[in-house]
């Protein structure tokens, strides 16, 4: 009896420890392939060179164009999702009836369940042609359309998490604001949003991390031309798209081109890892200030 | 106009703006679904569901894609379900507050934030190359299992946590051991919540294309897989492939395949929401 209990506990423990092995595996895989990449290409070249052409005859290994593409699409997505998401959060909390909130919140969350390849299709076949009627110089593949659609996708992330943060602000603060004669708008942006700012910041950081790692929308709609630009109207390439592009082609295993996807992968991992840990840190440091 | 009139006006203006923002997302969602249905629905017929892929758009079907998706769903469930539930139960029921368990918790939160394409790179190196599975169904299912493991663990923990102490105390009082209590009382009581989490995780897995492309799943597979070691394709990859082609007819195919994929995704989510509501209504501790 005792023994079998211990065996079961051991097996359960093993399952939990596997999660550490996954992280260790990710770091090991990314590091081991990248290290052999960096034996050929110097880290300085990787970080400062302004061209990325590993698949051409004339090879250049500067990650900056891919990073620029990633940051550009992410910035556009956040520029769409932050104002919309925050307004929705404030509106649902302070203005909407409880019943409406109950209906709208799950409906918005449907946006987050749609597969990203579907969003990519939408960006390419609906949003880009529409934007081209407004901006004739817009290329068929561009950062703008991919970024906007990505922004729509992450609206529920920001609106839901921010709404949770705002609604957990103690009632007394809100009532004090109303007692002073504030309007709902003044109460929201003068008291509630500042009081919930750590939670809102966390939601935005998580949204950024999600946008940085997003793959299929940008792979379909943003193009495959790495270039160091902040122009949203031309084709660019993100880190994630590059990994997909190489995976689709016949790049021989063990070749330098093959190793580039791990070097790109570790760059991506560093970004998202830093963002995720920043959000944990903020959450831990500023949470329960009012309890 | 007095100051307070202006403030009241601003308040009203924001209310209108709030309604506008709330519904713009929903309107976009509606436009988007209608657009896809209009473009794709006429393309869906029996032949489309049962034809093999083809270079000619009008003869191409999604048989290999949806069969592949089904295989992936079943295999991923078989791998991720026991592993995720076991880990969740351990952390909630056995895990003491020590360094290791604390680290495991932070680690799981971190894993949930790793982009899916990174899991693809992990799967490529470990499953495809080291374990020599190639671009097989098994390699794909293993990769996706790791991807959804954090979701299953977190929801399992929440479901187990919701079972009140009194249920465990009652079981212990009757002389049951710890594992007997978990197996006979805690797990049955929390099963609804665990199931909800697994279905949500699967709906995430079903839409993933990026990690499977990285491990080498193909866009063109001329046969339906018959064992876990066969090569495969899935619906999202088929959609991606058709979307990347310049010909208009392939876009119609893509729209039709998207309808099928969305039906599967919404069905899974619907089941999860239904189970969750039923659970919340039925169980009142």
UniProtKB/TrEMBL annotation, chain A:
One of the record's GO molecular function terms: phosphate transmembrane transporter activity
This protein's record includes keyword Zinc: no
Record-annotated ABC transmembrane type-1 domain positions: 67-279
SUPFAM superfamilies from the UniProt entry: MetI-like
TM annotation in the entry: 12-31, 63-89, 110-131, 143-166, 187-208, 261-282
One of the Pfam families matching this protein, by short name: BPD_transp_1
A GO-annotated cellular component: plasma membrane
Lipid bilayer topology: Multi-pass membrane protein
Subcellular location: Cell membrane
This protein's UniProt keywords: Cell membrane, Membrane, Phosphate transport, Transmembrane, Transmembrane helix, Transport
Entry function: Part of the binding-protein-dependent transport system for phosphate; probably responsible for the translocation of the substrate across the membrane.
Family: Belongs to the binding-protein-dependent transport system permease family. CysTW subfamily.
NCBIfam families xref list: phosphate_pstC (TIGR02138)
PANTHER family: PHOSPHATE TRANSPORT SYSTEM PERMEASE, PHOSPHATE TRANSPORT SYSTEM PERMEASE PROTEIN
Protein name: Phosphate transport system permease protein
Automatic annotation (TrEMBL), chain B:
MF terms (GO), sorted A to Z: phosphate transmembrane transporter activity
Keyword Iron-sulfur attached: no
Keyword annotations of the record: Cell membrane, Membrane, Transmembrane, Transmembrane helix, Transport
CDD domains (alphabetical): TM_PBP2
Annotated Gene Ontology cellular component terms: plasma membrane
Subcellular location field: Cell membrane
Segments forming a coiled coil: none
All residue ranges annotated as the ABC transmembrane type-1 domain in the record: 66-272
Record InterPro entries: MetI-like (IPR000515), MetI-like_sf (IPR035906), Phosphate_PstA (IPR005672)
Membrane topology: Multi-pass membrane protein
Family stated for the protein in its record: Belongs to the binding-protein-dependent transport system permease family. CysTW subfamily.
NCBIfam families: 3a0107s02c
Protein name listed in UniProt: Phosphate transport system permease protein PstA
UniProt source species: Pontibacter ummariensis
């Amino acid at each position: 009896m005792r023994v079998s209990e211990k065996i079961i506990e051991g097996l359960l423990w093993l399952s939990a420890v596997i999660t550490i092995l996954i992280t260790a595996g990710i770091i090991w895989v990314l590091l081991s392939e990248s290290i052999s990449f960096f034996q050929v290409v110097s880290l300085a070249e990787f970080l400062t060179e302004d061209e990325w052409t590993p698949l051409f005859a004339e090879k250049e290994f500067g990650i900056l164009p891919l990073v620029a593409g990633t940051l550009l699409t992410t910035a556009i997505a956040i520029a769409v999702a932050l104002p919309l998401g925050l307004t929705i959060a404030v509106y649902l909390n302070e203005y909407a009836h409880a019943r409406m909130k109950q209906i709208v919140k799950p409906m918005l969350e449907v946006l987050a369940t749609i597969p990203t390849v579907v969003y990519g299709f939408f960006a390419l076949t609906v949003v880009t042609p529409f934007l081209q009627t407004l901006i004739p110089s817009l290329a068929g593949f561009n950062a703008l359309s991919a970024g906007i659609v990505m922004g729509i996708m992450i609206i529920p992330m920001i609106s839901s998490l921010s709404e949770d943060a705002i609604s957990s602000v103690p009632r007394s603060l809100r009532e004090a604001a109303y007692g002073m004669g504030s309007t709902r708008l003044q109460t929201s942006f003068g008291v509630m949003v500042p009081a919930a700012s750590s939670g809102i910041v966390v939601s935005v950081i998580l949204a950024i991390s999600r946008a940085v790692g997003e793959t299929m929308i940008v792979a379909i709609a943003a193009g495959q031309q790495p270039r160091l630009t902040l122009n949203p109207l031309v084709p660019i390439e993100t880190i994630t798209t590059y990994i997909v592009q190489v995976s689709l082609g016949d790049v021989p295993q063990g070749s330098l081109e093959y190793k580039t996807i791990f070097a790109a992968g570790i760059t991506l991992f560093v970004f998202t890892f830093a963002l995720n840990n920043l959000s944990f840190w903020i959450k831990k440091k500023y949470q329960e200030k009012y309890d | 106009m007095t100051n307070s009139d202006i403030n009241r006006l601003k308040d009203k203006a924001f209310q209108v703006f709030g309604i506008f923002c709330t519904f713009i997302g929903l309107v976009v969602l509606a436009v988007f679904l209608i657009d896809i249905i209009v473009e794709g629905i006429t393309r869906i017929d029996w032949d489309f569901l049962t034809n093999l892929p083809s270079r000619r758009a009008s003869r191409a079907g999604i048989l290999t894609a949806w069969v592949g998706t089904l295989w992936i769903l079943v295999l991923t469930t078989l791998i991720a379900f026991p592993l995720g539930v076991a880990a969740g139960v351990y952390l909630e029921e056995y895990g003491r507050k020590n360094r290791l368990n604390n680290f495991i918790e932070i680690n799981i939160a971190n894993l949930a934030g790793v982009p899916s394409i990174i899991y693809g790179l992990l799967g490529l190196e470990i499953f495809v190359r080291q374990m020599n599975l190639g671009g097989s169904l098994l390699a794909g299912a293993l990769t996706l299992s790791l991807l959804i493991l954090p979701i299953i663990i977190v929801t399992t923990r929440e479901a187990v946590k919701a079972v009140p102490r009194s249920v465990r105390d009652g079981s212990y009082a009757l002389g049951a051991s710890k594992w007997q209590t978990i197996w006979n009382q805690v797990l049955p009581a929390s099963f609804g919540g665990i199931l909800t989490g697994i279905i949500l995780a699967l709906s995430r897995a079903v839409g993933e294309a990026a990690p499977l492309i990285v491990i080498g799943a193909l866009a063109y597979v001329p046969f339906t897989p018959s064992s876990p070691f066969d090569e495969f394709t899935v619906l999202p990859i088929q959609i991606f492939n058709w979307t990347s082609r310049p010909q208009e007819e392939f876009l119609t195919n893509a729209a039709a395949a998207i309808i099928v994929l969305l039906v599967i995704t919404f069905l899974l989510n619907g089941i999860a929401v239904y189970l969750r509501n039923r659970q919340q209504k039925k169980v009142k501790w």
